[in-house]
Amino acid sequence: MSLLDAGAALVDHPSARIEYWPQACDAATADAWFDALLQQVPWRSDRRMMYERDVAVPRLLAHYALADDTAPAPIRAAREVVARFVAAPFTSVGLNLYRDGDDSVAMHHDRLAELVPDQPIALLSLGAPRCMTITTQALPRTTQKIELQPGSLLVMNYASQLHYLHGIPKTKAPVGPRISLAFRVRPT
Ligand SMILES: O=C(O)CCC(=O)C(=O)O
Ligand SMILES: [Fe+2]
């Protein structure tokens, strides 16, 4: 594969781009990173105010600054894999652990205040496949679903956060745990 090959384009828009590579890293590597991160990361459970109620965020979270060399080795290795597909000066990685089908992330766009304009977000998936829903922000909403495979990479450009929403819905299907690594360039 040549450097910075284009992935499959998931949206058709003049400025928004969401690209998908089903196998940015091989299955054995994705499995090894999943096992290591599940064990080594100090996963935390967060609470957020939602409609004036204090509710548990339905997944576990962690975060590392990429300059932090105490980050587990798979984080640094994953950063190198991501660099083969997207050239961006990532500074931060947010980790999500979806323990089962009850864990989810609601439809959202990533917080713009936490992104440097024109820099992308790269999501590397490990563990069980989970479905992502992508909708337009404009009405009438059009919706698409993509099953994120272990070892896959999904890259959303900055403009996609202005025109689309994404989320990982709950599922009643029996699914195993999944970890996603969200690489971002955060303002300093
Ligand atoms: O787990 C995923 O693939 C999506 C995570 C996400 O959207 C986020 O962390 O903002
Ligand atoms: Fe997101």
UniProtKB/TrEMBL annotation:
Gene3D superfamilies: Alpha-ketoglutarate-dependent dioxygenase AlkB-like (2.60.120.590). One of its GO terms (biological process) is DNA alkylation repair. PROSITE patterns: FE2OG_OXY (PS51471). Residues 89-187 form the Fe2OG dioxygenase domain. Keywords: Dioxygenase, Oxidoreductase. GO terms for molecular function: dioxygenase activity. The keyword Nucleus does not apply. SUPFAM superfamilies: Clavaminate synthase-like. PANTHER family: ALPHA-KETOGLUTARATE-DEPENDENT DIOXYGENASE ALKB HOMOLOG 3 (PTHR31212:SF4). This is Alkylated DNA repair dioxygenase AlkB. It comes from Dokdonella fugitiva.
